[in-house]
Design goal:
By secondary structure, the chain is of the alpha+beta class. It has three helices and six strands, in the order E-H-H-E-E-E-E-E-H. The strands form two sheets. The protein has a four-stranded antiparallel β-sheet. The protein starts with 18 loop residues before the first strand and ends with a helix. 13% of the residues are buried.
Length: 141
């Protein structure tokens, strides 16, 4: 999971009050069954290998990561996809997909990168330091 601050040195995530919106897949048995087994292997809704179980993250883990990076989680809401209609719907159920809104609440000691060890797994979460020329080009548009 990467957290990208496209503002580069004055962006939303470096300023108190800046918002971050994330949509992702919860790490539950149900999300594994529907997100990988059903949607990839049975129904073929998405190509095989689209989802990686190890990258799924629970709302509690995401909240911990965000708070340790100076963000305060404001809202977590479930999202349900209807493959027959092709539409997404908001839901109170976060067991499959969910969205989170967090707000930058304090100055971060190291805003450009951080490494976390979570439950025996290592995940690197890096904020973009704007050394990537492609990011600069996107920002100019």
């Amino acid at each position: 999971m990467k957290i990208l601050d496209v503002g580069c040195g004055g962006g939303l995530l470096t300023e108190p009050g800046g918002s971050l919106f994330i949509t992702t897949i919860n790490k539950t048995q149900l999300s594994y069954a529907l997100g990988i087994v059903f949607s990839e292997q049975i129904a073929g809704i998405v190509p095989k290998g689209t989802h990686t179980w190890e990258k799924f993250v629970s709302p509690e883990t995401l909240e911990s990561i965000l708070e340790s990076n100076g963000l305060s989680v404001q809202t977590v809401v479930g999202m349900l996809y209807n493959p027959f209609s092709g539409y997404w719907h908001w839901s109170e159920n976060t067991s499959l997909n969910y969205a989170a809104h967090a707000v930058k609440s304090r100055v971060q000691e190291h805003p450009t990168s951080a490494e976390f060890v979570l439950k025996g797994e290592t995940e690197e979460l890096q904020a973009n330091t704007c050394t990537n020329p492609a990011v600069h080009e996107e920002l100019k548009k």
